[in-house]
Each structure stands twice: as C-alpha cells, then as structure tokens.
C-alpha cells in the first residue's frame, strides 16, 4: 500500500479513477463532480491538500481537504480499514478548530471509522439528495417557447455566455470565462454534454452541464441553472431532458444528480423528479471539534 500527498487536487485523475470504479455504489461524488470542484475551487492549492492511497496502479482511497474545515473522502469498500487512515491524515493536515466530513448514507463502510475518530453526525445542516435514473424510457424532448433553442457550447463566444449565465444564476463572480475555458480541458469534460438554452435574442439564459464517465457509463448533471427572468418557461426541464438523451446516445446506462434534499430548497429536486429521477441515497455530515491552542473544543 502506498500513500502520496499533494498540495491541492494534483492527482485528480487518480482520485477520479476510484470514483469511476465504485460510484454510485460507494461514494456520492461522480468523477465529473470532482472535476467541477477542482476547476471551480477558489482556495490556494496549499490550503487544500490531498492524499491518495493506492495498491499497484489502483487507487483505493483518497482524502481532499476542500477547505481547512471540510474533508471529502472516498474509500473502496474492499479496503474499509483505510477510512481510519484517511481521517487520521486529515486531522493532522488541518489546523482548523473543527472538521466536517460529508458521506453518502449508503457508505456504511465509513461510519464506524468516523465514530472511532470522534466524529458526530449532525442534523442541523442542509443535505443533498442522491438521485438517479436509468437511461431508458426517457422523457420526450420538450417543445421550447417560441424563439428559444438548445445546443451544446461551440466556441469562445459560447464560453463567455455560459460563464455569464452561471454568474447570474449563482452569484459566483469567480466563474469567469477564463476559468470556464480551463475547466473544459479537465477530464471527463466533453462539450456535447455542456448544453445551453438561448433566448430569441441569442443570449444564454439556461444551461445543464453534463459529465459523462465512459468508464462507468454514468452521466452527471452539475451544475444546472436558469436566469431568473427566464424561469417558469420549462427551460430547466427541457435542457435536462436533452442531456438525458445525449447521455443515452453516448451509450450511458445511468444518470445522476445531487440537488439539495432538505425543505429549504426543493424546487430543483422536483424538476429532476419530473424527469424520472428517484432518490437512491442522501448525504450525512459528521463533525469533530478539536482542542487547539487557545480554542476550546466546541467553539
């Protein structure tokens, strides 16, 4: 067994290779979700260390401190004892007063290690619903309002438009055209799954970015959005249905998405359910407070 440590998600492909092998049976982060998280991260790499465990050329576990207080973890169920090693590494690698770990409720091979290391499940945070649907018996391609059209990104002008609508939807000023263009170079991005809805005036007003992992045959929706002034016109559902058909045409067998599942923000989940997605799991967050010098545990 070998462990390698990095400043930032340098070994992203190694991390993704584990997701390709075991998702969604283990883990709730698709390889495309990891690509999106790495490409959209705002923290400096030395503030977001990673560690990867491998046997031979096969990745069997990894941990990523996406922030000093937030650990993302994935462990091959065939190597459950590595969960404790990942947690021990993360606790050494952060100087935060507390550390949170979010896992899928179905990842029972991680819960005993979390308890053994003093992590406590919380109920006070929003959670994500893990939805999926087979890529058979798909919904129809919906008729758009007059003048609207859906197509994949094609050129630099589309990149600028796509980044702009993302900023408008999510108030994310760090998603610039340059950052979005760089993300397009990260596996498993393919432009035919990055669908954009354009208004009659030719402005990008909605999008559904898809990530298709040809290793697992699983496609992911992430991210998805519609500009406020163009909502309630069926655009989110229409672009989502178009992406399902694109995944199926590529040979995919399953589509997944992880919207908020709590009552605070249910509309996206309802849209996905209208496209045939069903809940397969949900996330649970575990937190541990540390006694750091000058900081009492629990503060």
Keywords:
13-stranded mixed β-sheet, Aminopeptidase, alpha+beta, about 300 residues, globular
Note the total helix count.
8
Shape type: globular
Helix content: 25-40%
Radius of gyration: 20 Å
Distance between the termini: 37 Å
Mean pLDDT: 94
- What summary fits the major beta sheet? 13 strands, mixed
CATH architecture of the largest domain: 3-Layer(aba) Sandwich
Any idea of the CATH topology of the largest domain? Aminopeptidase
CATH class of the largest domain: Alpha Beta
CATH superfamily caption of the largest domain? Gcn5-related N-acetyltransferase (GNAT)
Point out poorly predicted stretches: none
Whole-number total of structural domains: 2
Number of strands: 13
Quote the beta fraction: 25-35%
Give the structural class.
alpha+beta
Order of helices and strands: EHHEEEHEHEEEHHEEEHEHE
Chain oligomer state: single chain
């Amino acid at each position: 067994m070998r462990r390698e440590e990095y400043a930032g998600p340098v070994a992203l492909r190694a991390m993704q290779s584990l997701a390709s092998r075991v998702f969604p049976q283990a883990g709730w982060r698709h390889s495309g979700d990891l690509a999106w998280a790495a490409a959209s991260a705002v923290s400096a790499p030395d503030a977001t260390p990673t560690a990867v465990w491998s046997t031979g050329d096969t990745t069997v576990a990894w941990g990523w401190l996406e922030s000093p207080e937030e650990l993302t973890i994935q462990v091959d169920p065939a190597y459950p004892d590595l969960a404790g090693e990942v947690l021990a590494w993360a606790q050494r690698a952060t100087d935060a007063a507390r550390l949170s770990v979010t896992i899928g409720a179905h990842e029972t091979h991680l819960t005993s290690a979390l308890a053994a290391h003093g992590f406590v499940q919380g109920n006070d945070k929003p959670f994500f619903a893990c939805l999926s649907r087979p890529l058979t018996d798909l919904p129809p391609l919906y008729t758009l309002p007059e003048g609207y059209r859906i197509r994949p990104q094609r050129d630099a002008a589309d990149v600028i438009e796509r980044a702009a609508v993302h900023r408008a939807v999510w108030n994310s000023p760090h998603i610039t055209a340059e950052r979005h263009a760089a993300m397009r170079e990260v596996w498993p991005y393919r432009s035919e799954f990055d669908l954009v809805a354009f208004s009659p005036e030719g402005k990008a007003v909605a999008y559904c970015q898809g990530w298709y992992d040809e290793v697992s045959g699983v496609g992911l929706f992430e991210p998805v959005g519609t500009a406020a002034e163009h909502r309630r016109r069926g655009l989110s559902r229409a672009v989502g249905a178009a992406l399902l058909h694109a995944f199926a045409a590529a040979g995919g067998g399953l589509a997944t998405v992880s919207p908020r599942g709590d009552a605070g923000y249910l509309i996206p989940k309802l849209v996905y359910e209208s496209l045939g997605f069903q809940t397969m799991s949900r996330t649970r967050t575990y937190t541990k407070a540390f006694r750091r010098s000058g900081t009492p545990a629990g503060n």
